[in-house]
Amino acid sequence: MSEQAGQGAQPPVPTLNIANVLTTIRIIMVPFFVWALLADDSEQGLWRWIALVLFVLAMYTDKLDGDLARSRGLITNFGKIADPIADKLLTGAALVSFSILAELPWWVTIVILVREWGITLLRVVVIRYGVIAANMGGKIKTVLQSVVIGLYLLPWTQEITWLHTVAWYLMLLTLAVTVVTGVEYLIKAGQLVAGAKKQK
Question: In this model, does residue 47 exceed pLDDT 50?
Fold first, then answer.
C-alpha cells in the first residue's frame, strides 16, 4: 500500500528549471535595456533600436516562461515571486528612463509605479488569507503597458508629431486602466480578508 502511494506521489518541482531560468534572464536583461535606452545620442537611434529589441525579447520570455511553467508543471514558489517582480522591474525601468529623458511626465511614472508595487506588496500581505488571482482587467493592463512602452521606444515617436500624440493618449488610457484595476484589486483584497475572518 505504501509502495503504491509512493509511486503515485509527485516529485517536487526543482527550482532550477527552464521557466525560472528564463525569468532570471529577464531580470538580468533590465540593466542592459536601461543602459541602451539612456546611452543613445546618435541621430540614427541605434541604441534605441537595441533597447526596443531587448524589450521585445524580454516580453517574449515572459510569455514563454509562463507557458512552459504551466505546460510542464514547473510552477515553483520562486517563479511565483520572481516572475511578477521581473515584469515590474522591466516596465518600471522603462517608465523611469522615459521620465529621465523628459519624454514622459514624472507624475505618470510615479502613479503607475505606486500602483504596480503597491498591489504586489498587497498580494504578499494578504497571501495568508488566499491568493488574489489576476483578472481580465489585469491582463489588458499588461498588454497596454507593453504596447505603449514599445511605441515610446521607437526613435520616430519623439520626432513625428502625430505618432507622439497617439503614444501620449495611449499612455493616458494605460494609466487609467492601471489605476482602475488597482482599485479592483484593493476591493478584492478587502473581500478576501473579510471572508477569511468570518470563517474563523
Answer: yes
